[in-house]
Amino acid sequence: MVLPALGGDVSPQGAYPSVDPAAAPVAEQVSIQQSVTVRISPRPAPAPMQSAFFAPGFDNTVEPRFIERKFGKCLPINAIFGVQPVTNSSLLLILRDNRMITAQLEKGCQARQFYSGFLVKPNADGQVCVSRDALLSRTGASCQISGFKQIIQLGG
């Protein structure tokens, strides 16, 4: 039965409602949007990196040694396997192919806020890029990356 409030009226017999097509309700357009967020979880650094880089009393003469080299402006999101904060303002990104990249955070951002990983919204190109994408910590901090450097092992 069509209710009078919706533009219909009931015939005197009450059996068949009549509807005025001009008074029928207008359907509104509905749009559905989808949002995807990628979560990068904390992972321990590889064993040689832990013993040399994270050991108390860090000593540069102990083999293996690590240095940082320039890296590009973007990194594929799906290449990132895990993350660890390493200094006050940088994160160690562990890649699926066992490479290690440091991500320098913009001024005012603390790496320790990313102890439980981070979330990032992927772009159409599937990359995380310097000065473009924001990393969102699980604690609510949002920071951009100001630079990438690749960690290379010397010796050992």
Description of the structure:
- With 156 residues, the chain is mostly beta strands.
- A hairpin with a 4-residue loop joins strand 11 and strand 12.
- The chain has one helix at residues 47-53; strands at residues 8-10, 17-19, 38-40, 65-70, 74-76, 80-85, 90-95, 100-105, 118-120, 127-129, 134-137, 142-154.
- The protein contains 1 helix and 12 strands.
- The strands form 3 sheets. Strands 3, 4, 6, 7, 8, 9, 11 and 12 form an 8-stranded antiparallel beta sheet that branches.
- The longest helix has 7 residues, at 47-53.
Question: What attributes characterize this protein structure?
Answer:
1 helix; elongated; 4% helix; eight-stranded antiparallel sheet; 156 residues; mainly beta
Instruction: Please report the number of helical segments.
Output: 1
Strand fraction equals: 35-45%
Overall pLDDT metric:
79
> What is the straight-line distance between the termini?
83 Å
Biggest pleated sheet:
8 strands, antiparallel
Helix content: under 10%
Uncertain ranges: none
Give the helices and strands as they follow along the chain.
Answer: EEEHEEEEEEEEE
Which structural class is indicated by helix and strand composition?
A: mainly beta
Q: Determine Rg (CA atoms, Å).
A: 28 Å
Instruction: Compute the number of strand runs.
Output: 12
Principal-axis shape equals elongated
Task: Give a concise summary.
Helices cover 4% and strands 38% of the residues. By secondary structure, the protein is mostly beta strands.
